[in-house]
Specification:
The chain is an alpha+beta fold and 131 residues long. It has 3 helices and 10 strands; from the N terminus they run αβαββββββββαβ. The chain has helices at residues 6-19, 31-42, 114-120; strands spanning 24-28, 46-52, 59-64, 66-67, 70-71, 76-78, 87-88, 102-107, 110-113, 124-130. Strands 6, 7, 8, 9 and 10 form a 5-stranded antiparallel sheet that branches. The protein has a 3-stranded antiparallel sheet with strand order 1-3-2, with helices on one face. Strand 8 (102-107) and strand 9 form a beta hairpin. The model has no long low-confidence stretch (mean pLDDT 96). Belongs to the universal ribosomal protein uS8 family.
């Protein structure tokens, strides 16, 4: 099956698995997905992840995080899509739930959170928002 938006596919897999209280979820590997997962790990939205296998069957196992029985990731929203890219400059970077969530951007300085982008004074493609 061909996936037209691999990033959205990963985010939805993580969201669905956490809503069903699964301990892990597997997603096909890509460098961009790994960078996004690094941010989610650093910000405390997932417990950990590991890259498993060799190309072409390489995948990432994501270990989900819960507070009691409540998933840490409440929702995710894919903003920039393959058919409709969404770019923001440094002044337009949104604050997710008044700072309780994060926005992930792809900038000229790499993939980073909204806070890091504001600190560096760069804008870019708004990939997704997580809360």
């Amino acid at each position: 099956m061909t996936v037209t938006d691999p990033i959205a596919d990963m985010l939805v897999r993580i969201k669905n698995a956490s809503m069903r209280r699964h301990p892990t979820v597997d997603v096909p590997y890509s460098k961009m997905k790994e960078k996004i997962l690094e941010i989610l790990l650093r910000e405390g939205y997932i417990a950990r992840y590991e890259v498993i296998g060799e190309i072409p069957q390489k995948y990432i196992r994501v270990y989900l995080k819960y507070k009691g029985k409540t998933p840490v990731i409440q929702d995710v929203k894919r903003v920039s899509k393959p058919g409709r890219r969404y770019y923001v400059n440094k002044e337009e970077i949104p604050r997710v739930l008044g700072g309780l969530g994060i926005a992930i951007l792809s900038t000229s300085k790499g993939i980073m959170t909204d806070k890091e982008a504001r600190l560096l004074g760069v804008g870019g493609e708004l990939i997704c928002m997580v809360w």
